[in-house]
Design brief:
It is built from 19 helices and no strands. The chain has one domain. It is an all-alpha fold.
Amino acid sequence: MKSSIIRGTFILTVAGLISRLIGFYYRIFLSNAIGSEGMGLYQLVLPIVGLSFAICVGGIETAISKYVATSRNSSLTLISGIILSCSLSIFMTFIIYINADYIATNIFLNSSCSYLIRIIAFAVPFICIENCINGYYYGLKKAAVPALSQLIEQTLRVGIVYFIIAYFISIHRPITAIVATYGLVAGEMASCIFVSITLIFRKNFNFVFNGIFMEIKKIITMALPLSANRILLTLLQGGEAILIPAQLIVYGLNTSEALSVYGVLTGMAFPLILFPSTITNSVSVFLLPTVSKAQADNNAKKISYTISNSLKYSLIMGFFFTALFIVYGGRIGALLFHNQSVGYFVTVLAWLCPFLYIATTLGSILNGLGKTTITCIQNTIGILIRIVFLIIFVPHYGIVGYMWGLLLSQVYVCSAHIIYIIRNYKISFNPFHSIIIPVLCVILSIGISLIVYFPLRESQISSEMIRLLIGAAVTTLLYCGFYYFNSPLMKKAKK
């Protein structure tokens, strides 16, 4: 069991890191092509995808993953989930397409994004089928197919957008955010086709329909509260996305400037901050079915062990990446995107890292234990905190007021998860190993790396980017080395 989690997490993490690297190149290329305003417009319509996911497949994917992990009739579970999800997705696509003008004008308050909404609507069925099949593989703890689908989706998306932009340039057509939506649909379509082909040729998979209505009913029973939770959260997040540029206009920016700031924050700074979360996201995917099975087996020791280690390693990662982003990440981001605002945003948002990683892993564990209502309530309060800051502080302090809300909301969600778990589950936590040692290691690592970095500024290395990357690499190697030789495992090994 433990080895399957580690192996699956490793595969997903490697694929995720490669996918994120491709994504970084894509975002840099895209931001240079369509500008920060175009990025803002594209980011503005993405909540449509999030809401469609929540309604059509979010809860269904989780139900498939959980039932496949604990049931022998996994083929019937997947087929039932796909039929249910596809039915919802076709209806959703139709609704979005015919109401695109209304959504753009009255909800997003920007009529120019109506065509983007129509294009994005066609991605919904592909997203649903792909995620149902991925949920099936996650339940089996088979990570290779979902991992490859990530890479295929990202690679084809970048390739399609590159050729579209090259074509637009050749015919002297303006390059707008529409190219990004074409890439999104193409990537989702390719990923869906790939996972479907793997399923068809899978030996242990059978196209069975006997008892399908009972299976659909079982999936609905579990998926309905999950979907309701996700729909609520997605609606609030969509409202948050709409409010950011709207409140920036109240602050004094014009529409173009507000979209530009929004595009820089959500399309450039956030992806950089979220890059390391590939690891925690990969772990979380496998934590849910793992703790579900442990709960079904009444294995309290396994649950306690999983929670304790998730908390410990989230803190170890969080302290490291906070320091790395503050010292090196901001300047690397500014150079990558040719925008100084990115550097400032990354430096401020770096403080999110420990809280973000803990909330991600513990939230997945709570969902796996059936505490979806608890996580929904806590996440909802977190979003409401951000919305309050948007309404009250952004008109007076600009985007800085929103970032204050981001930090406070993430601290709340993280703390709420921890408090609930401590009250209801037995966990083992050593502050010395999980907090003091990582903090000391990161201070030493950063200090030594700066001793290496500053002389490089006077050396023959003319590129500031290379100097910063060397400094970041030295920090990473030192931190891993320091923590490894100070870990409890090493102390036991020495004895």
